[in-house]
Design goal:
Layout: E1 5-6, H1 7-17, E2 32-36, H2 41-50, E3 56-59, H3 66-74, H4 84-99, E4 103-112, E5 119-120, H5 133-143, E6 153-165, E7 168-181, E8 197-199, H6 211-217, H7 219-234, E9 235-236
Parallel strand pairs: 1-9, 2-3, 2-4
Antiparallel strand pairs: 4-5, 4-6, 6-7, 7-8
Helix pairs in contact: 6-7
């Protein structure tokens, strides 16, 4: 039996939790909100852009009332899971706890085959703390030095989890983008490993692509699409 989420029943939980958010943050029914647990405002915008005109939208830490925001920041749990799924679940469960509405979180890793899956879930701090995109990229390129293209395969993976409040239940959506690691970085957006990764079927690195194209074919875009399809099919108005 496929999962069904009663929209009006869920909005009852949203109405009870509306006081946790700044005035005007929660829209009127039938707009359906979810809490995206992240401190990255750009990521919230990215989610909302992807879900534009769907009837679903995402609130974030910035939308919480000040006392709750401060409590949420001071009590943030460590992302100490051993997998993307575990870390994503830690974040979405915490988000649901503080917001009192359904919460979404994601976790992303970069897995290089010739490095036995490194940097994996530690992609953001591969070269050490604090996160340094350039240092992380250079460390990967150094470790792959001299390898032919056929051996420079890798994959980005993203896991999005959705934590429903009642009954407590977690749903998981995974997206993957496989490709090759270049011998040197390309121009364009210098985010993460994008300048050194060319996805299968393309000649451009992620960094050189338009945001629209990247979002369509990327690991996160594919996970987004699975979440979108799930909500459109499962939320019953």
């Amino acid at each position: 039996m496929k999962t069904k989420i009663n929209a009006s029943q869920y909005f009852g939980f949203v109405s009870e939790a509306a006081g946790n958010f700044k005035a005007g943050a929660v829209k009127d029914y039938p707009n359906i909100p979810f809490f995206l647990y992240t401190g990255n405002a750009d990521k919230i915008d990215e989610f909302n852009h992807f879900f534009a005109s769907s009837g679903f939208y995402f609130l974030g830490l910035k939308d919480l009332i000040k006392p709750l925001y401060e409590a949420a920041k001071s009590g943030e749990p460590p992302e100490d899971g051993a997998t993307l799924s575990a870390n994503s679940t830690i974040k979405s469960s915490y988000g649901a706890k503080i917001s009192k509405i359904a919460s979404v979180a994601d976790d992303t890793g970069f897995f290089v085959d010739a490095l036995n899956g490194e940097p994996g879930i530690y992609a953001g701090r591969y070269a050490g703390e604090p996160c340094d995109y350039e240092a992380n990229r250079m460390l990967v390129l150094k470790k792959l030095g001299g390898l032919p293209a056929i051996e420079r395969t890798a994959a980005f993976r993203c896991v999005i989890t959705l934590r429903m409040p009642s009954p407590p239940e977690t749903f998981e959506f995974m997206g993957e983008s496989r490709g090759l690691i270049l011998a040197e970085k390309r121009s364009g957006n210098q985010f993460g490993y994008d300048p050194i990764f060319v996805p299968e079927g393309y000649n451009e690195a992620f960094s050189e692509m338009s945001l629209e194209l990247k979002n369509k074919i990327s690991h996160r875009g594919r996970a987004f699409q699975k979440l979108y399809d799930f909500l459109k099919e499962s939320v019953v108005f």
